[in-house]
From TrEMBL:
Record protein name field: SMP-30/Gluconolactonase/LRE-like region domain-containing protein
Domain SMP-30/Gluconolactonase/LRE-like region: 15-247
Superkingdom as given in the UniProt entry: Bacteria
Pfam family, one: SGL
Record has Zinc-finger as a keyword: no
Alphabetically ordered keywords of this record: Hydrolase
Signal peptide (from-to): none
Family affiliation: Belongs to the SMP-30/CGR1 family.
GO molecular function: hydrolase activity
Length: 281
């Protein structure tokens, strides 16, 4: 499947991370613009931030939980006010990336450094206590839960692969293994970024400079959405739609990632309806 269209939700962001959907509302984090975007049927609300948030999710309380990109903490947001959720001072030295929330309120969040310096995966329990559960991850990024929460996928962006872990009863992870090797199957431009899971055990993965979103299952590429731009992140939306975020450089001569650091990108979020979104075969 190839698309340059879809239903445009917002198209004037600098970067568009962590699309999320809950109760008819789409949330997007504009990390480079230090804004949290709330897209409702009646209109868009922009929350300007003192420090940007990266990965987001929802706690059992309904509050949004967000990783502060340049601060060692994870905070909660009730739609009006922010409150501390987990203070990671003394535990992390890099910046926080994507996160995912379990039904009991446990949060897994990435700690990333440079493309050459491995990062880590942290677990925050429902009381806000944090610990490191996995190390030596090459720029950990998108996180996905599959198999009713028994399997956790981590996109290792600068290793070009999706790594799987088994989730232990105590919240730790074990049995590390390669779930899908994008570089081996598709080539070096395809670096995994944001990702989301589906009930059939497949996952959609944003493939960055591959300018595509890939649906993967059991080691096989089962669907693909090509886009006009750098593929950042994805998430299931309403009524079988898939939320996609992409970015382009304002100067075609400047690569997207370089342009992002210079505030020289334009990002958008769209909703598309993949032909195989509900396909179990």
């Amino acid at each position: 499947m190839t698309t340059t269209g879809g239903r445009v939700l917002v198209d004037d962001l600098r970067w568009a991370e962590s699309p999320r959907f809950r109760d008819g509302v789409v949330w997007v984090s504009d990390t480079q613009g230090s804004r949290l975007i709330e897209i409702r049927p009646e209109g868009t609300r922009v929350h300007q931030l003192d420090t940007a948030v990266n990965g987001t999710g929802f706690l059992p309380s309904g509050e949004l939980v967000a990783a502060r990109m340049h601060a060692a903490r994870v905070d909660r947001f009730d739609g009006e006010r922010w409150a501390p959720h987990a203070d990671l001072t003394g535990l992390v030295t890099g910046r926080l990336g994507d996160l995912i929330v379990l039904p009991d309120g446990t949060v897994y969040v990435d700690e990333v450094h440079s493309p050459d310096l491995p990062g880590r995966l942290l677990r925050i329990d429902p009381e806000g206590r944090a610990s490191v559960v996995a190390e030596d991850l090459m720029f950990p990024n998108g996180l996905v839960l599959l198999d009713d929460g028994a399997t956790l996928l981590v996109a290792e962006t600068f290793a070009g692969r999706i790594t799987a872990f088994s989730v232990d009863a105590d919240g730790g992870v074990s049995d590390r293994r390669t779930w899908f090797d994008l570089w081996a199957e598709l080539g070096k431009p395809f670096r995994p970024d944001g990702a989301c899971g589906l009930p059939d055990g497949s996952a959609w993965v944003a493939a960055t400079d591959g300018n595509a979103f890939l649906r993967l299952r059991d080691g096989v590429l089962v669907d693909r959405i090509d886009v006009d731009g750098f593929a950042i992140a994805c998430w299931p939306g309403a009524d079988g739609e898939l939320l996609l975020t992409t970015a382009t450089s304002l100067d075609p001569a400047v690569p997207v990632m370089e342009a992002a650091h210079q505030q020289g990108t334009r990002a958008r979020a769209v909703a598309v309806r993949p032909s195989t979104f509900d396909d179990e075969g």
